[in-house]
Amino acid sequence: MIANKTIINAQSQPLNKIELIALLLFSAMMFFLLSQVFYLAHKYKQIETAEYNLVHGIQKPETKSMQETQTQTRSPKTRQETSVIETSTINKQVIENPKEEKIEPVTELVNEIFSDSELIALENQKIIDRYCETVGEKLGSVNVQDCKNAKLKLSGVVSNQSRPLTFRDFITEVPSETTKEKIRILLVGGIHGDEFSGVSISFKWLNKLANDYSSSTNSSINDYHWRVIPILNPDGLLQPDGQSKRMNANDVDLNRNFPTEDWDEFAHKYWIDKRGRDPRRYPGESGGSEIETQWIVQQINEFKPHAVISIHAPYGIVDSDGPIEPPKKLGPLQLKILGTYPGSMGRYVGVQKNIPMLTVELKRAGTMPTQKNIDLIWTDIQKWINDKVLNKESVAAMQSIRHEDEEHKDTIIDKKAGD
Fold first, then answer.
1. What count of other Cβ atoms lies within 10 Å of the Cβ of residue 70?
2. Which ranges of the chain have pLDDT less than 50?
3. Closest Cα to residue 301, out of 245, 248, 352?
4. Assign residue 322 a region: left if phi > 0, alpha if psi is -120 to 50, beta otherwise?
5. CA dist., res. 153 & res. 95, Å (int)
6. pLDDT value at position 73?
7. Which domains, from first to last, does the chain contain?
8. CA–CA separation, 338 and 342 (whole Å)
9. Which residues are within 8 A (CB) of 253 and not within 5 positions of it... i.e. 6 or more apart?
10. In the prediction, which pLDDT does 108 show?
């Protein structure tokens, strides 16, 4: 009985000064930790929202200064005078900070855990992951994981609708055994946003290269440096179902927008006289007016490829431009020279730059070739590179400028896609 009374008295006794101070300190510390948790969650949501907006092309209402900047960047006169590098810098700012206000560092705690380079890498990876989610939702032949496995890199340049322009390099540190320098090959897919098979097969071959370069037994890859751009026109491709289009966000056909020497004289004349102002083949306000065109031109000038391979559909043939003899076939696709067009990639790369260029025209834009034919086409591409590009076998006749004329009329199979 006495013991119980003692316990009751001890429990009812007020806290002494030291215990009260300890309780207050503990409560303050718990409050601080909880506030940090909510703060981190809020800032993480801000960054996640900004990245989502970047990939999906959602932008907040522009301020007057932003509108003036875009007007200046997109006006025909300014775009002719603005260099590709300057445009890349502008777009790099957009991709790093898609919102107008600067996003502050999450907390000092996070900065202590991760270095600046690690934080940038994490943010870039989240942008790529979001991008791959949209690609996987669009294409039946490329799922989200296929895209993530491709390990694409951000170029620092974004499209008109703020989607990243991405690429992947494949190169070994081992010196080439057959040449003094590695042969550089540029593979480009998705110039036209409604040619799904061209994008899908670019991812197939990108992952094939990744497997080859991860194998220590494949010594033939030491001679080459590949750069793959699976989607040059993400704005045309990554539209809601049924709305993907050949052109970019400005309704410009990128394959008529290359700054060829004859662009000013012939591009609009050809479009009006030969194409009847077909909106699907609108060449733009000026040669190289589009961000995507400027970026691929920059890639060509800086990467200096020994050969370029461009993937299209649905002619079901192989086209070629430039100084090297083309292959007679690529798998089931037979060689058929279509000629070049004012502002086309073939005229810019093969004729003006005198770089060998293959245009692979798949048979269907919406359906992939069989796996057997995909493998056969790839095998024949590699054989052409080994036999002709690596050995630099030139054919003078291939250097002549070829224009579409009455002789090539019958090659235009489907005016709604291709070339």
1. 13
2. 1-10, 55, 58-107, 110, 394-417
3. 352
4. left
5. 13
6. 38
7. 76-411 (3.40.630.10)
8. 13
9. 192, 246, 247, 280, 281, 282, 283, 284
10. 55
